[in-house]
Structure formats: structure tokens, C-alpha cells
Specification:
Length: 360
Amino acid sequence: MSHLKAISPLDGRYVDKISDLSPFFSEMALMRYRLMVEVEYFLALGEEKKISEIRPISLPLKKKLRSWYKNFSLSDAEKIKRIEETTNHDVKAIEYFFKEKIITTPLKKYQEFIHFALTSEDINNLAYSLMWRDAVHEVYLPTVTTVSTELSVFAKKYRALPMLSLTHGQSATPTTVGKEFLVFVTRLERQIDQLKKHTLLGKLGGATGTWSAHMISYPQVNWLQFSKKFISALGLEPNLVTTQIEPHDSLTESFHIVERINNILLDFTKDIWLYISRGILGQKKKEGEVGSSTMPHKINPIHFENAEGNLGIANAYFTYLAQKLPISRMQRDLTDSTVLRNQGVPLAHSLLACKNIITG
């Protein structure tokens, strides 16, 4: 599909600026992360000595199975989508895809251990947390850190340049341009540090968080210990007391951190807009660009205005996600499923805002 036909401006007008997030939040990316969890769970079952029906898997075969998600292709995604047309269940389609591939290997006798005793949410909660974690650390954090670094350089360069302060909109005791920029740097660095250290939770407790199918099948296995080891190996913190779903509290905490970063940047973009309006900061005209359709002599602070708009959209999404996701009726309802698919949208708007600020 042409980008000119996209409904969302993220996939249309701004696709070149946020395409780095596609490997983490597209439908194909979700399939890949789900397959990764399924493969790693299957391999972990092979390491469990008290399950006699499946034996430890050789290193070459482990490498082969892992290559299926590491080298996941568009044709793989399209095949899964065709399977889903029959199953009408996206996670079950991943399971069937995995089974179809494994029957071509010496491990075909173990194919019924694929997705053994799991509910879809065991796969989904881990996949969504891993998607978010990887996107934040590999794409978003380097970009927002660049914003902070650029502001820090600006702050040092103009640390001694005096500027009239305005408090309550009235002339006040002078400050310096550098000091005012440093205020934002200090605030950003604190939130960035929190985001780097934040840990996401994961669950693997079966249909209602009780390991019931696991326990009935293999009561001799310490499933709590198995789950702790498996979830930790994925780089997540085990949550062993849940309903069918992992309650998304840790994801919400992460959303809140990015939302706070966005609020700091909102404050910054509004101040920059006012500094430009006051003539404290000037703008360089770029050859060939037109500042206004009727007043071409103007240079509008479009990058900061664009950033402000995208930060607002991002926080509107984050606010709803943070309010909705921790709430689920009784042991499970499915309202979080369609909502969670949108977690990449506010991060994309946040990333777009950061890039606009850097350009500005």
C-alpha cells in the first residue's frame, strides 16, 4: 500500500521518521515475538528433567528452532495470517505454524509439547512486554538521550548569556539562557535514568494463574520455580501471583515514565516557542523553504509546534492505556487485547516529537 493511502499519519506522512519502530510494534513483529516465546518455552520444557516424555534438545536443533524467529520473514507472517483465517485465533495460528515447521525436524515426536498447558495470555503478556522493552531501549532511549545531550551542549555554550526572566508573565530578576536549558536537562536525565532501570513483569501461570493444567499433567515438577527461571531468562521479572492475565501494572509504570518525559518536553517546546516569539532565540532560513503560503518572509517554529502536537497525542494515548490496562473483570476479560495492540502508537508519537525537537 502506498504511504499516501495510509489512514494513520504515522504510517503515512511520518513513516520515514518512525520506521525504526516497525520491527517492534507491527503485526509481523507481534507474530515474531510470540513465536520467540513459544520456541523458548518449548526448549525450556526439554531442559526439565522431571518431564520424561521430552528430552534435552541438542545445540544444533536449538539453533535451528531459534533461527525461525531470529530470521522471521514476511512470507512467514503471511503464512501465519492464512492459518488465522481458519483458526480465527491469532495465538493458535502461531502454535500451528510452529507445529508445521517442527514436523520437518527430528523433534516432530515432541510437537504436542508446543504451547503445552498454556493460555494465550501466557504468550501475549511476555511478547508485549518484550516488544515494549526492546523498542524503548533500542530506539526510544537513544533518541531522547540525544535530545538531552543536545540541550546540555546548548546550556553550556550559553551558560553566561544573560536573559530577562519572566515570572507570572512579568519582568523579573535576570537569568541566563544556559541555566534555563539546564533546568530541562536535569529533569530529563532523572526520568531517563528511571526508564533505563525500570523492570517489566511477566507471568506463565496458565488459564487462571494457578498452573492447573501443568500440575495435573506433571505434579512432580516445581512449576513456580520453572516459571521464575523461564521468565527471568527472557529478561523480565516473574510475577507469580496473577489471574489469567499479567495485570499490566509494570507496563503502566513504564508508560507513566515516558509520559513524564513528554510533559517535560511539552514544557520545553512551549518555552522555546515563547523565546522565539520574544526574539531571544532567532531562526535560520533554509534555502528553498517557504515559511508561510502568503508571507514567505516568515520563519515559523514548526518543528517545536509539531513536537508539541505529537507529545499531546502521545500522552492522551498513554493516559488511556494506563487507566485501562490494569483493570480486568474477575479472572479475565478481553478488553485489554485490542487496547494493548496500540502501545506502539504513543511511543511513535513520542519518538517523532523527539526528532522534531532535535531538528528544531
